[in-house]
UniProtKB/TrEMBL annotation:
The lineage of its organism: Bacteria, Pseudomonadati, Pseudomonadota, Alphaproteobacteria, Rhodobacterales. It comes from Aliisedimentitalea scapharcae. It comes from the Bacteria. This is DUF374 domain-containing protein. Residues 74-136 form the DUF374 domain. It holds the Pfam family DUF374.
């Protein structure tokens, strides 16, 4: 095993990186001014013990724990079982989320049973619609599958900040900067998902959810002080 891989797989190294990033995100959040809007309906559901499907773009994932009030109820995020996904998942855990690693080795039936059990126990489900590998800002059908299976209401969320770091990842992952101003926005996606949608119906629903996520994300960017045509979005894969 190479030295690089041994370091990357080191529990001490990963715990240190997780702690550092978690502390930084908390610091950036606490030193910035935030405007929060549109969360009443989702908060009421969670407060009343009604789980929801919580959806955002992977680019805005790092701020997910500040977009869902874990003092009102549980939430479990679906994350990648790959090394980067495990790191991101543990940062979310440190910030109050629970996670389920999704692995190509885990049978779909087993994952479905695990998610359904959590929902029955009152836990909401968090999903990055284009994660974990993209294409960026192109929604998968995963949120629709869980909405169909659970019957939960679907809420799209986004954060934006006047000043951010953009990481050199496939989606230009955004990290908030300290002493800035930002917005946290939530909006319900209300298209009904049939119990047995056709392929055409599923594609139309996927496009609708994707448009809703783009709309709320662009709205957040504008509210944070960026005109949409000036925002450098992550390129979509062809």
């Amino acid at each position: 095993m190479s030295l690089r891989k041994r370091i990357a797989d080191s529990a001490w190294f990963n715990n240190s990186i997780q702690a550092l990033i978690t502390s930084y995100v908390r610091f950036a959040y606490r030193t910035s001014t935030w405007e929060r809007s549109g969360f009443d309906a989702m908060d009421d559901c969670v407060r009343n013990g009604e789980p929801v499907i919580f959806v955002l773009w992977h680019q805005r994932l790092i701020m997910a724990p500040f977009l869902f009030d874990t003092s009102l109820g549980r939430i479990c995020a679906l994350t990648s079982a790959a090394r980067a996904g495990r790191l991101a998942g543990q940062i979310l855990v440190r910030l109050g989320f629970e996670t389920i690693p999704m692995s190509s080795h885990k049978r779909h039936v087993a994952l479905s049973r695990e998610v359904l059990r959590l929902v029955k126990e009152g836990s909401s489900i968090g999903i990055a619609a284009d994660g974990p590998r993209g294409p960026a800002r192109v929604s998968s059908t995963v949120p629709l599958v869980w909405a169909r299976m659970t019957g939960c209401r679907v809420f799209t969320v986004a954060f934006a900040e006047h000043r951010v770091f953009r990481l050199p990842t496939w989606d230009r992952q955004m990290l908030p900067k300290p002493w800035s101003r930002g917005v946290l926005i939530c909006q319900e996606w209300t298209d009904p998902v049939p119990r047995k949608p056709s392929e055409d119906q599923m594609e139309q629903l996927r496009l609708s959810l994707e448009a809703s996520l783009d709309e709320i994300t662009d709205k957040a960017d504008i509210a944070a002080g960026f005109p949409v045509d000036a925002i450098e979005k992550a390129p979509r894969k062809q």
